[in-house]
Amino acid sequence: MKLGKRILPIALAGALSLGMLAGCSFGPKTIEDDHKLTIFRWDFAGVDSARKQNSPIYKEIMANADSEYPIYVRTSGSNNWEDALNNSFLGGNLPDIFVCYAMDRPANFKKWIKDGAVLPISDYVSETEYPNIYNRLKKFDYLKDRIDYFGGKHYALPIETTLEHGMYLRLDWIENLNNKLPSILVKDGIIANETQMTETLRTQYEFKIPETLTEFYRLMRAFTKFDPDNNERNDTYGYTSSETNMWFNNWIFEAMSSNPDGVHDSTYWGWVDDGNGGLTSSWITEGSKKSVAFLNKLYKEGILDPDYIATDAKTKQTNFVQGKVGAMVGNIWYNTILDDFRSANNCTAEEAKTRFTLINPPKGENGAYGMKGNPGFWCSVCINGMLSETERTAALKLLDYIYSDEGNDLFTWGVEGKHYKVENGEKVSLMGQDSNGYNYTLESKDPAWALSSLSSWKYSYYSPYQSNADMIKEFMDRAAEYSRVDAVSYVQTPLYVDYDSSIANQALEQYVRMISNGSYYGSSDSANPDWNNLYTFNQSFDNAWNSFTNLYLNTWGGKRMIEEYSAEAKKYLK
User: Which residues pair with 24 in a beta bridge?
Assistant: First the structure.
C-alpha cells in the first residue's frame, strides 16, 4: 500500500529511536558476501514470491541487470517500517538495499552517514559507469549542495513522484440537498415558509461543487446539519481528515496564503516567505493562525469528524463510501474507492461514478489554493555502505537497470506475450478482468512489479492497463498543477538538523489542542459566511496563539533556527 504520509511522525517511539541512535555506533565493518541481494521496503513480501515463481518481470530483471545475485526481501508492515529499519541499524544488520526517508530524517541519516552505514553512491557512478544512476542523481544535484552533512556527495537515490492527492466529494449528497432546498432555507431563517421559494433564491442558494473556502464551509455545514443522505438521522459529518500529523489538512493552509502565485506565505509544515526577502517557519505565520482558527470552527460546529486525529486512511475511506462523511482528502486510489463505494451502496460502478468525484482543493480569499507536494520525489533508496565489492557491484547493476528506459518500459507495459500483445501497432492487455469487471494490471498480476517502487511511485497511478485510465490520468495531471512546494527545498543547516523535528512535534501538539478547544471559538454558525467569519479570533484564541509563538521562538529555540536557516536559504531563492 502506498503511504500518504510525507512528513515527520510525532510518535514518541520515533523520538526514542533517535535517542538510541545517538548513543550507538554502527561501526566500520564489511558484511560477509552471501551471494544474494536483500532489499527492504514495507509490504514487500510479494517480491520473494516472484523469485520463487521466477515470474516474467522478475526473470526479465535478472536477465537485464546482469547479476547472478537473486533478490530476497526483508519487510514489515506499513505502520512500523521505520522502527524495523532503525532496529536493523542498531543491530548492525541493515539490508543491502533499502527504502527510507533518508534526508527527511536528518538527525538520523547524518548518524548513518557518519558511521559508514550508507554508501556514498556518487563515488561509484559516472556518465559511463552506471549511467542511469548517474542521471538520476544529476536530477537532484541540489541535494548535495544544500545538505551540509552530505559533504558534496550523494548517499540516496530519490524515488520520483508527483502529487497524488485530491479531494473526494459526495455528489449525490449535493443533489439531495438541492432537492429539499426550500426546507433548508426555512430552517436557516432565509425564508419564512417554503411558498416563498423563488428561482432567484434557488440560483443564489443552491449547493454546488465548492470552488472557494466559503463555498466549502457552507456545503460542509449542510452535509452536517441537513440530513444529506435522507435517512432521517443526524449521523453525518461534512469533512474528515486522517492521521495524527494532520497532513491531509495541508490544503487549508495553502488556501490561507496571501499570495496565489510564486513564493507563498502559508503552508503546512514548511518554510515560507517572511516578507523581507528571506524565509520563516510556516508554523508561526498569520496564514497558519487563520488555518487553525478555521479548523477550530469546523471542529466546534461539529462539521469536522471529531475522530479525525485517530483515523487511518482505510477508516477514512470506509467512512466516505458508507456515507458517514461527505468530503475527504486522500490518495488518488480511484478504482479502489470506486469499488468500495459500489460494494457499500449496492450499485454498479457506473452508478457510483455519478455519486462522487475528485475535485480541486477550494481557493482562499486571495485566490491561493493547492496541496503540499514534494520536489519531485518522496523517500529514497540507499545501499548498505558495508557491502563487499561484489555485492556492491550487484546492487549498482540492479538499480542501474531499474532506472533505465528498458526498466521503465518493463514496469509500464510488462513482458510481451505474457502481459500484452501488439495489434496494429498498439499494446493490448492479455491480463483480462476480475470478477467485478476491473482490468487486471501488472501490480495485480506479477509481484516483481513492486520493484518499480525503487524508481517511482507513479507506475500504478499512470498504468495504461487500469480501468478508468484516462480519468485517473486527468486527476493526476490536475494534482500536478495544484501541487505546492516550498520556495527552497532541503536546506538542512546544523540547527535545523538538531532541532526542527522536536520543535515541529511540539508545534503540532499545540495546533491539535487549539483546534479542539471550544473556548477558542470566535466564529458563528452562518448560512452565508463571509471570509472573516471563517477565521474570527476571540481573545482566548489570540492569547493561546501568542503564547504558542513565544514558546516556538524563545523557549524551543525556533528563533535561532529560523535565522540560520533563512540566511542559508537566501543563497537559493530565485
Answer: none
Q: How far, in Å, CA of 545 to CA of 289, rounded?
A: 7
Tell the burial category of 527 from Cβ atoms under 10 Å away from its Cβ (0-12, 13-18, 19+): middle
Q: Which of 158, 160, 124, 162 is nearest to 141 (CA)?
A: 158
The model's pLDDT over 307-360, given as tens digits with 9 standing for 90+, comes to 998 889 999 999 999 999 999 999 999 999 999 999 999 999 999 999 999 999
Q: What is the pTM of this model?
A: 0.91
Q: Residue 510: helix, strand or coil by DSSP?
A: helix
Confidence of residue 18 (pLDDT cuts 50, 70, 90): very low
Where does residue 370 fall: left (phi above 0), alpha (psi -120 to 50 degrees), or beta otherwise?
Answer: left
What 8-state DSSP symbol labels residue 118?
Answer: B
DSSP conformational letter for 551: I
CA distance 467 to 463: 9
Bridge partner residues of 537 (DSSP)? 521
Residue 387 and residue 380 in contact, taking contact as beta carbons nearer than 8 Å: no
CB 503 within 8 A of CB 561: yes
Cβ–Cβ under 8 Å, residues 220 and 177: no
What band does 243 get if pLDDT is binned at 50, 70 and 90? Answer: confident
Longest distance between any two alpha carbons in the chain, whole Å: 85
CA 531 to chain centre: 28
DSSP secondary structure string, 393-425? HHHHHHHHHHTSHHHHHHHHH--BTTTEEEETT
> Residue 498 corresponds to which amino acid?
D
Residue 217, helix vs strand vs coil: helix
Decide: helix, strand or coil at residue 237.
strand
67 in helix, strand or coil?
Answer: coil
In this structure, are residues 370 and 483 in contact, taking their beta carbons and an 8 Å threshold?
yes
Contacts of 154 (CB under 8 A, 6+ apart): 120, 121, 122, 137, 140, 143, 144
Matching residue, cell 455528489: 171
The predicted pLDDT at position 230 comes to 97
What is the DSSP pairing of strand 71-74 with strand 37-40? parallel
